[in-house]
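tool_call: predict_structure(chain=1)
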Amino acid sequence: MLYGDLDLNGLSEGIIGCAIEVHRELGPGLLESVYETALCIELKMASIDFKRQMGIPLYYKGELISEHRPDLIVADRIVVEIKSIGLLLNFNTPYLRHGVRRVML
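tool_result:
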């Protein structure tokens, strides 16, 4: 199913569903990079468009100061960091539903 036309809640639910499947398969305690790779596989299987580790230039008062590389940008609408902004997915919990937090900016 393509998620391009869904609202942010529907898209978030799709991402969370994929993350739950990853957690069911792998369990807690692995490196972030392992969960990121597995989540990419699940998103692809669910036909959810994403970009992985895409560089985003950061400017301060017109000067380039850094490049941010979020883990995933899903459907050009939601930033997914395994432990940062957007959907906070804490895989180090017995049940992933206890480790999911949505951060609204």
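agent: The mean pLDDT is 88. Proceeding to next step.
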